[in-house]
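Input structure tokens:
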């Protein structure tokens, strides 16, 4: 390995850390930009799309590239150690430290923009209802003592829009058991609230169109 290549490999950890610091700064700058999400009903799930998805993909790509480069550099140093019987411990430690630090910086960058919790942490389950004129999907969510859900109106192209939200007590779920009365421009949905054994609530859900 010539001197120039050796210097390049030694500078890689600093370069990787610098790139991740740039992403951290960018995350702080764009973290408060509104998401303006869109929703799609696909395979009995509500799929949410925002620009966050693109940013997460970019961060994942950077993490993958850094992982590959770190592994390649470690392999190169090991081969050098075998051929020339030279100590390489400090180089491997440097690469390992930079990889851990980069992983941490990218994770923090993602949390700043996307948040600590994702929708999947609430274990969403969807239930579809229709009166042949309107179609709605009630998405139930719960996490620890929080529980509630979203009501989406579903269009013919499976685009979805949130038309109502609700909450219930103590992590309870109605598991799709809703009494629904349909009207031309709205529906009345009755569900258990779990505040007491038999407590129920009726919400008026106004259609988007």
């Amino acid at each position: 390995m010539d001197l120039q290549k050796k210097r390049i490999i030694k500078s890689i950890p600093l370069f990787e850390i610098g790139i991740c610091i740039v992403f951290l700064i960018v995350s702080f700058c764009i973290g408060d930009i509104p998401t303006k999400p869109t929703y799609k009903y696909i395979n009995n799930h509500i799929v949410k799309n925002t620009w966050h998805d693109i940013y997460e993909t970019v961060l994942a790509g950077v993490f993958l590239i850094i992982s590959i480069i770190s592994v390649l550099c470690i392999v190169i140093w090991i081969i050098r150690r075998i051929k020339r019987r030279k100590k390489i411990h400090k180089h491997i430690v440097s690469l390992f430290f930079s990889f851990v630090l980069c992983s941490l910086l990218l994770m923090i960058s993602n949390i700043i923009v996307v948040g600590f919790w994702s929708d999947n942490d609430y274990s969403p389950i969807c239930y579809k209802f229709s009166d042949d004129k309107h179609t709605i999907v009630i998405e139930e969510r719960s996490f620890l003592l929080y529980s509630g859900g979203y009501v989406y109106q579903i269009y013919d192209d499976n685009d979805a829009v949130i038309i109502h939200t609700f909450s219930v007590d103590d992590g309870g779920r109605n598991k799709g058991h809703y009494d629904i009365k349909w009207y031309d421009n709205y529906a009345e949905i009755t569900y258990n609230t779990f505040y007491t054994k038999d407590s129920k609530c009726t919400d008026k859900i106004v259609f988007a169109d």
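The mean pLDDT is 89. The two ends are 69 Å apart (CA to CA).
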